[in-house]
Specification:
CATH class of the largest domain in chain A: Alpha Beta
Strand order of the largest sheet of chain A: 5-6-4-7-8-3-9
Number of helices of chain A: 18
CATH architecture of the largest domain in chain A: 3-Layer(aba) Sandwich
Radius of gyration of chain B: 28 Å
CATH class of the largest domain in chain B: Alpha Beta
Structural class of chain A: alpha/beta
CATH superfamily of the largest domain in chain A: P-loop containing nucleotide triphosphate hydrolases
Largest sheet of chain A: 7 strands, parallel
Radius of gyration of chain A: 22 Å
Helix content of chain A: 25-40%
GO molecular function (chain A): ATP binding; hydrolase activity; RNA binding; RNA helicase activity
Number of strands of chain B: 17
Oligomer: heterodimer
Number of strands of chain A: 16
Protein name (chain A): ATP-dependent rRNA helicase RRP3
Number of domains of chain A: 2
CATH topology of the largest domain in chain A: Rossmann fold
InterPro entries (chain A): DDX47/Rrp3_DEADc, DEAD/DEAH_box_helicase_dom, DEAD_box_RNA_helicase, Helicase_ATP-bd, Helicase_C-like, P-loop_NTPase, RNA-helicase_DEAD-box_CS, RNA_helicase_DEAD_Q_motif
Number of domains of chain B: 2
Strand order of the largest sheet of chain B: 1-2-11-3-10-9-4-8-6-7-5
Subcellular location (chain A): Nucleus
Largest interface: A-B, 17 and 19 residues
Keywords (chain A): ATP-binding, Helicase, Hydrolase, Nucleotide-binding, Nucleus, Ribosome biogenesis, RNA-binding
Helix content of chain B: 40-55%
Distance between the termini of chain A: 44 Å
CATH architecture of the largest domain in chain B: 3-Layer(aba) Sandwich
Strand content of chain A: 15-25%
Distance between the termini of chain B: 93 Å
Chain lengths: ~450, ~625
């Protein structure tokens, strides 16, 4: 890494990024878009989409990207990261509109899909053609899409590598831009080898950008992406949560967790809620139970097909259902506006996960709540999280009377759910049992000697 | 010890099935051996052959192929004018959004025109589009010389061939509605030339680009990538749908005549499998002329197996029959043969890039199973399910956009029209360049003088109820009137074109206790047939039900007929004449003894037109 990589970037218009402002990122900076050096065509689109001022990350990243610098960006999701790389790429592409101009890699399919949509929205005026290459969807259709020579390819690494190897006539030899979104995850052990392979077949003469919400300190990893003299743009400290987020915990015995959970969801009726569980099994069970109690819930986990997952997400986004019950597949990168409450049904075993999960709410300056269920088994994890975020959470008290009134119904719903799952061959399945959702890959680290490992061995 | 024993065992095995194993082994070798090294061979071959051809042709035609610097500009101009390039270029002009929309909504502008020797025709152009300007037939110079040598015999034939060639050279669709047995081989010749011309143009382009690409430095950025858009998803670009192996035999033979210099692989196997075994006597051919009707001989002589498919691979020096579909240029197949493969493989990717479709003897295909045809059409130019080693950087954009069906040229040849074939023409031919339907006038069928023909019309409001109304009329009015008459209640043939009608009438007749009858249908075996004919001739059975397919495939002369009832007019107009002449096979029959009744509705227009003639049919319909 060269020395400039760690130095903070100062934008050409003399706007010195304020470290304090960077701390509570996601908030809109004072920089209007028209001072960033963007072409009128893009400014028009940005304006039409209703944005006036750039977010901090945008204000810092766009000018240097336009100067053809490599960029390492650290910013929370929801802080306008996508536009921070999409706008300069689109502008550069506009100067030299060639097919297969830029490739954006993202760790999850949903995120890739979202980035593609954003590119299309921002590039609508320019006539940019964008295609999304992710696993789980028809390969042949993607081959055809690639053969049409799109300008921008948004992809998950595995499927892209598949196409590079097996789709005759497809290459990224003319690539000018490579972006790694959620770069810390893309460069970790699971995706690392694939990324290495991809890096071998794309030109060295290119611009590279890395973006992530949490930047790993292991700088070594970044060297793989072979950045040249990068500018580091940072708008958030490593682990932090937004100030507009109110964080609570519910303490109760494991036995009463389900009852408490449902009482809580009922008391929050009318709000849009994401419930995170640690296992696919829990996801399914909770969904079925809530449905049995006439609360519209949809599941999202890796055992669902890609199209179902997209469908679930769209339903939730459109407001058709109020409760989304998900594993960590939905924890990162997803931009769902108007999530009021995030409930951690299981305490995340990794504090990073916690930050990603609660990052789904209180986005872009809005208020939001995060409520974590802590049982007698989870105290250790919970304390660790509190330590990392540097905050003590308040307790959220579930009214006992209310819970008692619901107890019988919940028990009944639980039995019904168990029956239904038995029919689906899930409850007692060897594989499905109490296993952490691997989300098409594993998260970067499972803390040694904790949770999962031990449970498996037992 | 062990080795010797296995060897002996193997030898014994070989002896037992010497013929079979050897045959199979050879095929396998032929099929698999040339595949892996193709790429290398190609690269070398191109150079060699071009050099060779320069020598041969004195550098005139092929010369400009090689000389890229000077002649390029001239060639570009030529190429844009060439109908192949105009129609199948990377961005064809005729493929506009408005034209596609017009085709989808079936808005065609029709106009009448006369196409030289081919006769009168109706031209349909997508609304808002213009007729393609025909720049000659686009025949490669090399093939043109062949064309002239082919048809120097007869002036009329030569003119017909020329008109046909310039007509299909424009890549418009063509539907021949009255394809005469006599001109079949003429059409075959011209159409195979067209196919060959098409394939040669594709292959030339592809090979030239292969060479350019392999010469270009590896890491060079593709500069003008549009230049290399030269292929579809898969290699087969021509499909010929045929009813019988014998038809395929004629077509392949006709095709090979145009390529005398090419070495043909698997020719012997082809002859074995697609003609009759040596020594077999084809009584249709060996019988003196006139014994069997001409159309029957033309259709049914030779190997009439209707389950086959064969790929033909064309390279610069050789032609390979029985090539794997995905390395073939032309596929000859029966609809049944394709259907079986489609159902087995659950896909028909080899049909995704068909640019020329030829359906010959469409009338015979209607006598087979129409569902098969529809299935094949459903898979034509569909998006493939797998990639089959396609170079995706070279696929023409309109393939990727799923527009291949809008450019495919379809050529349908039929001896006569049925509502099914017309529907196929109307619904499944989507060529944005337009389509041409030849209009033929029909003379009245010749029948023995003095026979009274009685055409009985029944009213019905819609085609859906036609079947029921017809049966009702037959059961309630026509049949009782037959029984009333002493003459007409025996020695009566009831001719039923459709098999479904036939089963219905048969089961109904079984319930009638005042009539004896026997049947001849397509599922009668030889013994049943001779029993039936015998019984009818002897008069032990008063009535005989005959289906059209039975007569089509067997063409028996049935004796003992005095009264002929057509449940519906036959599709083959000649059958009408034949059945009216059969009574006179027996001695002493006078025209007055013979009666004929034809039941029809307004939906039988096409069939009736062929029987009473184009001039009369309107009168009859309105009567």
């Amino acid at each position: 890494m060269s020395d400039s990589s760690s130095s903070r970037h100062s934008s050409p218009d003399g706007h010195e990024p304020n470290p304090l402002l960077a701390e509570n990122s996601g908030e809109v900076s004072e920089t209007p878009f028209n001072t960033l050096g963007l072409i009128p065509e893009l400014l028009q689109t940005v304006e039409a989409l209703g944005y006036k001022n750039a977010t901090s990350i945008q204000a810092q990243a766009i000018p240097s990207a336009l100067q053809d610098r490599d960029i390492i960006g650290v910013a929370k999701t929801g802080s306008g990261k996508t536009a921070a790389f999409a706008l300069p790429i689109l502008q550069k592409w506009w100067e030299d509109p060639k097919p297969l101009y830029a490739c954006i890699l993202a760790p999850t399919r949903e995120l890739a899909y979202q980035i593609q949509k954003q590119f299309e929205a921002l590039g609508a005026n320019l006539g940019v053609r964008c295609c999304c290459i992710v696993g789980g969807l028809d390969i042949m259709a993607q081959k055809v899409a690639l053969a049409k020579r799109p300008h921008i390819v948004v992809a998950t690494p595995g499927r892209l590598q598949d196409h590079l190897e097996n789709t005759k006539g497809f290459s990224l030899r003319s690539l000018k831009y490579l972006v790694l979104d959620e770069a810390d995850r893309l460069l970790d052990m699971d995706f690392g080898p694939i990324i290495d392979k991809i890096l071998k077949v794309i030109p060295k003469e290119r611009r590279t950008m890395l973006f992530s919400a949490t930047m790993s300190t292991k700088v070594k990893r970044l060297q793989r992406a072979s950045l040249v003299n990068p500018v580091k743009v940072e708008v958030s400290s490593k682990y932090s949560t937004v100030s507009t987020l109110q964080q609570y915990y519910v303490f109760g015995p494991h036995m009463r967790k389900e009852v408490n959970m449902i009482t809580l969801v009922r008391s929050l009726s009318g709000k849009s809620i994401i419930v995170f569980t640690n296992t696919v099994n829990d996801t399914i069970r909770l969904t079925l139970m809530l449905r049995a109690l006439n609360i519209g819930a949809i599941p999202l986990h890796s055992k669902l097909s890609q199209s179902t997952r997209l469908g679930s997400l769209n339903k939730f986004r459109a407001g058709g259902r109020q409760v989304l019950i998900a594993t960590d597949v939905a924890a990162r990168g997803l931009d769902i506006p108007q999530v009021d409450v995030v409930i951690n049904y299981g305490v995340p075993q990794n504090s990073k996960d916690y930050i990603h999960r609660v990052g789904r709410t209180a986005r872009a300056g809005r208020a939001g709540k995060a409520i974590t269920f802590v049982t007698q088994y989870d105290i250790e994890f919970h304390l660790r999280i509190e330590e990392v975020i540097g905050k003590k959470m308040d307790e959220w008290v579930i009214p006992e009377q209310e819970a008692a009134m619901l107890a019988e119904k919940v028990e009944e719903a639980g039995r019904a759910a168990a029956m239904e799952m038995k029919d689906m061959n899930l409850s007692k399945g060897k594989e499905g049992k109490r296993k952490r959702d691997d989300m098409d890959r594993d998260d970067d680290s499972v803390p040694a000697g904790t949770g999962v490992g031990r449970k498996k061995r037992r | 010890m062990t080795t010797t024993s296995t060897t002996t065992r193997l030898l014994t095995l070989l002896n037992v099935s010497a013929l079979k194993t050897r045959k199979r082994k050879r095929e396998d070798e032929e099929e698999s051996a040339p595949l892996p090294p193709t790429k290398k061979l190609n690269a070398k071959r191109v150079v060699q052959i071009e050099a060779a051809e320069v020598e041969e042709d004195g550098g005139e035609e092929e010369g400009d192929d090689d000389d890229e610097g000077l002649m390029d500009e001239d060639k570009e101009i030529q190429e844009t004018e060439d109908p192949y390039n105009a129609h199948f270029s990377a961005e064809p002009k005729c493929l506009s959004t408005s034209a596609k929309e017009a085709v989808d909504k079936r808005r065609w502008t029709t106009s009448k025109r006369s196409v030289g020797k081919l006769g009168e025709a109706v031209l349909s152009i997508p609304e808002g589009s213009e007729d393609v300007k025909c720049n000659g037939d686009g025949l490669l110079d090399k093939l043109r010389s062949q064309m002239s040598t082919q048809s120097d015999g007869n002036k009329g034939e030569a003119a017909l061939q020329k008109d046909l060639l310039s007509c299909i050279g424009s890549y418009q669709d063509l539907y021949v509605t009255k394809h005469d047995v006599k001109t079949r081989s003429l059409y075959r010749d011209v159409l195979s030339l067209h196919m060959l011309n098409h394939i040669m143009k594709i292959r030339r382009r592809v090979l030239k680009n292969n060479e350019k690409l392999s010469n270009a430095p590896k890491d060079a950025e593709p500069s003008d990538s549009n230049a290399y858009l030269d292929q579809g998803f898969v290699r087969p670009s021509v499909l010929v749908l045929l009813p019988f192996r014998s038809s395929a035999f004629h077509w392949v033979t006709a095709f090979l005549q145009h390529t005398p210099e090419h070495q043909v692989e698997n020719k012997a196997r082809f002859r074995n499998e697609f003609s009759l075994p040596p020594g077999a006597d084809d009584k249709l051919l060996s019988a003196p002329q006139g014994t069997y009707p001409d159309d029957h001989v033309a259709n049914m002589a030779g190997n009439i197996d209707d389950f086959f498919r064969i790929g033909l691979k064309f390279t610069r020096k050789s032609i390979k029959l029985f090539a794997d579909f995905y390395s073939s240029d032309i596929i000859f197949a029966s609809p049944l043969g394709l259907r079986e493969l489609i159902e087995k493989e659950k896909s028909a990717d080899y049909l995704s890039s068909i640019e020329i479709l030829i359906v010959d003897q469409l009338d015979v295909l209607t006598m087979q199973n129409w569902n098969h045809i529809q299935l094949v059409f459903k898979h034509l130019n569909a998006m493939p399910k797998q990639s089959h080693d396609t170079d995706f950087s070279r696929i023409k954009p309109w393939y990727l956009d799923g527009n291949a069906a809008y450019l495919r040229q379809s050529i349908l040849l039929s001896a006569y029209e049925t509502p099914d074939t017309r529907a196929l023409y109307n619904k499944n031919l989507l060529n944005v360049a337009g389509k041409l339907r030849l209009e033929a006038a029909w003379p009245a069928v010749q029948v023995p003088a003095g026979v009274r023909q009685n055409f009985v019309k029944f009213e019905c409001g819609s085609p859906q109820v036609e079947i029921d109304k017809r049966f009702e009329y037959f059961a309630k009015q026509l049949f009782p009137s037959l029984l009333k008459s002493a003459v007409q209640s025996s020695n009566t043939v009831i001719f039923i074109p459709s098999y479904f009608d036939y089963t219905r009438v048969r089961s109904w007749l079984k319930k009638q206790d005042n009539v004896t009858f026997t049947v001849l249908s397509e599922d009668s075996d030889n013994r049943a047939i001779s029993r039936s004919r015998q019984a009818f001739f002897a008069g032990t059975k008063a009535m005989l039900l005959v289906t059209e397919r039975f007569h089509f495939f067997r063409r028996y002369k049935i004796r003992g007929i005095r009264n002929v009832v057509f449940y519906a007019p036959p599709d083959h107009s000649q059958f009408y004449g034949e059945f009216l002449s059969y009574p006179f096979l027996d001695e002493g029959v006078l025209p007055e003894d013979v009666t004929c009744k034809v039941l029809f509705s307004k939906y039988d227009y096409m069939r009736l037109e062929r029987i009473v003639g184009s001039a009369e049919v309107a009168n009859l319909m309105n009567a």
